[in-house]
């Protein structure tokens, strides 16, 4: 049977099955599946849920030939990630963020296609891996929910000004080969509390100094990440993915130019704690073009009197009227809740990549000119989208400004997300009931 890339399974935190014939005491206690190991606000995490997640991570580590950290360390890492996720899901519920079945089906189909499978073959592959399909789908629902919450709470608050773009472009080396280079960084975070005392900071620094020393002596980086990092990417080996220098968090950017593959730098102080980075790879990039899109939309927002589902149904009704010959512009003027574009018949004008929120942009990118989208949900509500025309540009000024805007935005979102996650964790009521 076709074997899926296991990283996909880890990315969605999928469930697994314990199979080791003998287990340490810490692991054995997780077999009491109904035992509550953590209370998170008004929810709980059971030993069974934690055990299944730990088993799945272990399976991934074995398949990637990564040295296994002690059970106690791995369990603590996984439990902390589950606590953060639980807090986010609860915040999303309070904010009324829901994922409809159509969006869920589309997400499953997209994952299946990435693995070169039909949805039915994908389901069979999951079963062969010992994964319950309904639980897999529920994990995807949670992932989409969390992404929408972050878009609402963090992404939508991040703005990039023209002055920031100008300042950014001034700092870049014109025609520099390094400007097109991409870097693969590994990352370890030794976090400090939101209102850290002098003692808390010193304790974290001492831990980071000791870990850095061990890494320089040859300690495996992935092993160190799994055993010590407080970063959100810890269970994925601390891999930040391939990025251009401008996409790297600003506190690391100054180190990148002088690092060679395999180099380690740190500890680097930030408001979140102490960081250690390792250069895992460097590659050169290529020139690029951008595609501008002239687009219009109709937005229907859920309100206290209009539910999410009713807003979607209203948009479907408007879509049907347009398909039957009514003018899109007139529909937008009369019904769109985006008053700024409604007066212009729903037109957003010419937009460049990265200028709009990801769900809108993804849907827009899949449309042919004059084609109507299905209802698209973003943190702002439900959209009906129509692309009017596209234009490819290789103008260096446009490309550089677009790259600058996109890369500044990503960097700011990443930094703000890290601070936001620490804030909601510190403010939540969490009681851990295991040693």
Summarize this entry quickly:
With 435 residues, the chain is α+β, with helices and mostly antiparallel strands. The chain has helices at residues 6-11, 25-29, 47-63, 71-94, 101-114, 119-128, 133-153, 162-171, 177-180, 198-216, 221-228, 250-256, 308-323, 328-335, 339-342, 358-365, 396-427; strands spanning 36-40, 43-46, 182-191, 239-244, 264-270, 273-283, 290-300, 347-351, 376-378, 381-393, 430-432.
Task: Describe the secondary-structure layout.
Blueprint: H1 6-11, H2 25-29, E1 36-40, E2 43-46, H3 47-63, H4 71-94, H5 101-114, H6 119-128, H7 133-153, H8 162-171, H9 177-180, E3 182-191, H10 198-216, H11 221-228, E4 239-244, H12 250-256, E5 264-270, E6 273-283, E7 290-300, H13 308-323, H14 328-335, H15 339-342, E8 347-351, H16 358-365, E9 376-378, E10 381-393, H17 396-427, E11 430-432
Antiparallel strand pairs: 1-2, 1-11, 3-4, 3-6, 5-6, 7-8, 7-10, 9-10
Helix pairs in contact: 3-4, 4-7, 8-17
């Amino acid at each position: 049977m076709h074997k899926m890339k296991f990283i996909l399974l880890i990315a969605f935190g999928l469930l697994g099955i314990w199979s080791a014939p003998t287990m340490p005491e810490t692991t054995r206690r997780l077999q009491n599946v109904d035992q509550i190991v953590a209370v998170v606000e008004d929810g709980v995490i059971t030993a069974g849920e934690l055990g299944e997640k730990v088993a799945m991570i272990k399976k991934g580590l074995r398949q990637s030939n990564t040295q296994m950290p002690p059970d106690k360390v791995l369990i603590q890492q996984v439990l902390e990630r589950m606590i953060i996720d639980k807090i986010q899901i609860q915040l999303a519920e309070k904010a009324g963020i829901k994922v409809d079945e159509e969006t869920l089906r589309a997400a499953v189909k997209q994952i299946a296609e990435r693995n070169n499978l039909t949805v039915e073959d994908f389901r069979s592959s999951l079963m062969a891996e010992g994964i319950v399909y309904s639980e897999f789908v529920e994990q995807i629902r949670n992932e989409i929910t969390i992404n929408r919450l972050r878009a609402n709470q963090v992404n939508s608050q991040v703005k990039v000004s023209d002055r920031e773009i100008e300042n950014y472009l001034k700092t870049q080396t014109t025609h520099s080969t390094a400007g097109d280079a991409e870097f693969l960084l590994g990352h370890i975070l030794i976090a400090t509390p939101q209102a850290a005392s002098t003692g808390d900071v010193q304790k974290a620094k001492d831990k980071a100094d000791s870990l850095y020393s061990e890494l320089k002596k040859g300690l495996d980086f992935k092993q160190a990440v799994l055993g010590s990092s407080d970063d959100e990417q810890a269970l994925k080996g601390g891999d930040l993915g391939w990025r251009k220098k401008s996409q790297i968090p600003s506190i690391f950017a100054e180190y990148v130019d002088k690092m060679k593959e395999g180099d380690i730098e740190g500890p680097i102080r930030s408001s979140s704690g102490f960081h250690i980075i390792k250069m895992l790879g460097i590659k050169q990039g290529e020139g690029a073009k951008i595609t501008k899109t002239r687009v219009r939309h109709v937005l229907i927002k859920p309100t206290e009197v209009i539910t999410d589902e009713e807003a979607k149904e209203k948009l479907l009704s408007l879509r049907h009227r347009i398909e039957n010959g009514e003018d899109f512009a007139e529909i937008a003027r009369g019904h769109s809740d985006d008053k700024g574009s409604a007066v212009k018949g729903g037109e957003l004008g010419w937009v460049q990549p990265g200028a709009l929120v990801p769900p809108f942009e993804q849907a827009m990118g899949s449309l042919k000119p004059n084609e109507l989208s299905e209802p698209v949900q973003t943190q702002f509500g439900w959209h009906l989208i129509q692309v009017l025309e596209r234009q490819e540009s290789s103008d260096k000024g446009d490309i550089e400004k677009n790259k600058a805007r996109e890369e500044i935005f990503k960097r700011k979102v990443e930094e703000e997300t890290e601070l936001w996650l620490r804030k909601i964790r510190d403010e939540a009521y969490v009681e851990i009931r295991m040693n």
